[in-house]
From TrEMBL:
Residues 19-29 have a biased composition (Pro residues). Residues 9-18 have a biased composition (Low complexity). It is found in: Membrane. PANTHER family: AQUAPORIN TRANSPORTER, MIP17260P. Gene3D superfamilies: Glycerol uptake facilitator protein. Belongs to the MIP/aquaporin (TC 1.A.8) family. This is Aquaporin. InterPro entries: Aquaporin-like, Aquaporin_transptr, MIP. The chain crosses the membrane at residues 37-57, 63-85, 117-135, 155-175, 182-198, 218-249. Its main location: membrane.
Amino acid sequence: MTATHESAAEPAIASAEPQPAPGATPPRRPLVARAGAELVGTAALVAVVIGSGIQATELTKDVGVQLLANSLATVFGLGVLILLLGPVSGAHFNPVVTLAEWWTGRRGGAGVTIREAAVYVPSQIVGAIAGAILADAMFGEPLVEWSTHDRSAGHLLLGEVVATAGLILLIFGLARTDQLRFAPVAVASYIGAAYWFTSSTSFANPAVTIGRTFSDTFAGIAPGSVAGFIGMQLIGGVVGLALVALIFVPGRDADE
């Protein structure tokens, strides 16, 4: 009887232990588990983006409705993925986020090390490609068909700078104000809004950008447009970190 009571109490004790907030990078998880979470999470995200785009174009010819369906599916899917995988890997799913976290923590602070970043980024890219192929397979599309959707116009590149800068400002602003527990809702909501207020529909993610070249569907991007998009996303990441440093300055004591 005593043993039964003790074993029943163990889960309650374990659940009472503090858990890492979604968006944080827990240091205790094995790197292979975190890399797996990044690969699977990025694959699922790209499958949601491309799959919902294919579904939307099959159901309606109205481009506005197509974008609405695509953005809503992405909001819900991204929120769930951050909530599920955040406690494992931090739910980056994005090389810009990974590199920004490495940069901010490179002097011994919290964040990924350069070795961990070198594992995260390839995992995200492989996951994005796998997610694109999976989406195509689910809808009977050719498994690999290079997108012909040109997105090289200057105003679209500016949109990527804005979208990525806002994303980095949001994530690291939440971290600076100890509010990462809101990351699933906040990040998903921002991406959903950025679908509509940026000219590029807010890719804001080099891995997802690469993955979307593998599908010649609504959400695709032509390979020739990828370098420009990734370059602007990296610039947006730098701008976002500069804004974080400017806005979220550590407070000072009254005596100071």
